[in-house]
């Protein structure tokens, strides 16, 4: 099959739902994918090059912080997306797909109609709702501008783009339900959750790396952003209880905040609770180094603040933990609850610091239960959330949609 893929992801794509699912897995199944996307930084520049079994047309990037620089960045991106009309006319594609873009989606709807192609939209995150949430929480730098933009994009997404798309791919079952509330038929919506590449993630087999691989103590690991919106202060307060109940326990926070001040707030909280010597902040690390820390963990954790925005996401860290054979403690975020309930790979509790701490303590004090959960989690990922499995399912869905289109013609 041949796809024209226009995505908000920058070049080179690094998110696994693009870099692995499309560039590796679908291409290995015979797909040819042409791309329209913007460079990650100014050094790459505008160019055309091979990517994912096809060709990528890359827009230049302006990394400046001024309003004019941001305007130029958007102009470069939109100008590049206009190439879709010529490509749609000459490329002999099975369909056009747009991911997380709005102006490009309107253009693609028109191109698909003119050249009688299928148009699919892929929503990985509720972007308009996130804008409006930031305004509501008072954390937006330009609240009026962001509010107006959020309202406009929300209208375009749910009243124009999705109703006129031939099919819509979403991130989770919860997002499918949320989108359906806007009147989009459920049979027009296909969830594709985040997965993991088993060939990339290190795995030690059925034996957890425990305290014998470290100097001393038991280790709890969190992998991910430390931004204030993630409410990682919840985890630090919960771990304050763990330290009082498990001697030598340490919490390793692998990641960084976008704003240094937000990370400093967490360090100050650890000092306030008297657990600064038990809390490790690694800062941002390359993925291989980050996974090395996870590999030393006795327990991995994924607290997700239950906002309507985050509730529709599909956390990558959870499936990465489980692919590494780690027992996990999570709160009852919809996708996390589904995965833990189906797999038996960890403990799912309510979003409560005491309950979260108790679950961590339970696993730290029962290594055999933790090991069994780690084995179950790994097996579940192999069967349900590896990108090999997800790609097979997505390939089947694409072929069904294109076959149905040919049948109607």
Q: Examine the secondary-structure arrangement and name the CATH architecture of the largest domain.
A: 3-Layer(aba) Sandwich
- How big is the Rg? 22 Å
Main CATH class of the largest domain: Alpha Beta
Tell me the count of domains.
2
What proportion of the residues is helical, as a percent range? 40-55%
Structure characterization notes:
The chain has helices at 16-19, 21-28, 67-81, 83-90, 103-114, 127-136, 143-164, 173-180, 233-243, 260-273, 287-295, 308-311, 316-323, 334-343, 353-364, 367-385, 387-408, and strands at residues 2-7, 32-38, 47-51, 54-59, 95-99, 118-122, 167-170, 189-191, 219-223, 250-254, 279-283, 299-302, 328-331, 346-349. It has two domains: 2-195 and 387-408, Glycogen Phosphorylase B (Rossmann fold), CATH 3.40.50; 211-385, Glycogen Phosphorylase B (Rossmann fold, 3-Layer(aba) Sandwich), CATH 3.40.50.2000. The two termini are 18 Å apart. The protein has an eight-stranded mixed beta sheet with strand order 3-4-2-1-5-6-7-8, sandwiched between helices. The chain has a six-stranded parallel beta sheet with strand order 11-10-9-12-13-14, with helices on both faces. The protein contains 17 helices and 14 strands.
């Amino acid at each position: 099959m041949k796809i024209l893929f226009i995505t908000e992801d920058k070049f080179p794509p690094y998110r696994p739902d693009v870099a692995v699912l499309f560039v590796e897995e679908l291409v290995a199944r015979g797909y040819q994918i042409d791309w329209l996307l913007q460079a990650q930084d100014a050094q790459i520049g505008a160019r055309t090059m091979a990517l994912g079994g096809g060709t990528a047309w890359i827009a230049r990037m302006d990394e400046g912080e001024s309003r004019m620089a941001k305007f130029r960045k958007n102009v470069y991106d939109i100008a590049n997306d206009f190439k879709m009309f010529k490509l749609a006319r000459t490329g002999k594609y099975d369909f056009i797909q747009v991911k997380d873009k709005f102006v490009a989606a309107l253009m693609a709807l028109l191109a698909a109609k003119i050249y009688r192609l299928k148009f699919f939209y892929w929503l990985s995150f509720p972007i308009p709702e996130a804008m409006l949430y930031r305004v509501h929480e008072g954390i937006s730098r330009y609240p009026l501008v962001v509010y107006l933009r959020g309202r406009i994009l929300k209208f375009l997404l749910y009243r124009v783009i999705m109703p006129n798309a031939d099919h819509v791919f979403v991130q989770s079952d919860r997002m499918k339900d949320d989108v359906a509330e806007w009147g989009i038929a459920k049979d027009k919506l296909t969830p594709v959750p985040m997965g993991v590449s088993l060939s990339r993630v290190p795995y030690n087999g059925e034996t957890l790396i425990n305290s014998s691989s470290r100097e001393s103590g038991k280790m709890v690991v969190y992998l991910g952003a430390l931004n204030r919106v993630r409410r990682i202060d919840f985890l630090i307060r919960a771990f304050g209880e763990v330290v009082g109940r498990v001697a030598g326990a340490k919490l390793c926070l692998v990641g960084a905040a976008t704003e240094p001040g937000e990370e400093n707030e967490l360090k100050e909280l650890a000092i306030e609770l008297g657990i600064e010597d038990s809390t490790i902040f690694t800062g941002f690390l390359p993925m291989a180094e980050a996974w090395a820390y996870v590999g030393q963990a006795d327990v991995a954790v994924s607290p997700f603040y239950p906002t309507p925005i985050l509730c529709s996401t599909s956390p990558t860290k959870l499936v990465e933990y489980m692919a590494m054979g780690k027992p996990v403690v999570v709160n009852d975020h919809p996708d996390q609850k589904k995965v833990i309930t189906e797999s038996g790979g960890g403990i799912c509790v309510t979003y409560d610091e005491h309950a979260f701490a108790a679950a961590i303590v339970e696993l730290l004090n029962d290594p055999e239960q933790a090991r069994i959960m780690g084995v179950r989690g790994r097996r579940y990922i192999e069967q349900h959330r590896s990108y090999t499995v997800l790609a097979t399912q997505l390939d089947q869905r694409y072929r069904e949609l294109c076959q149905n289109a040919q049948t109607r013609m």
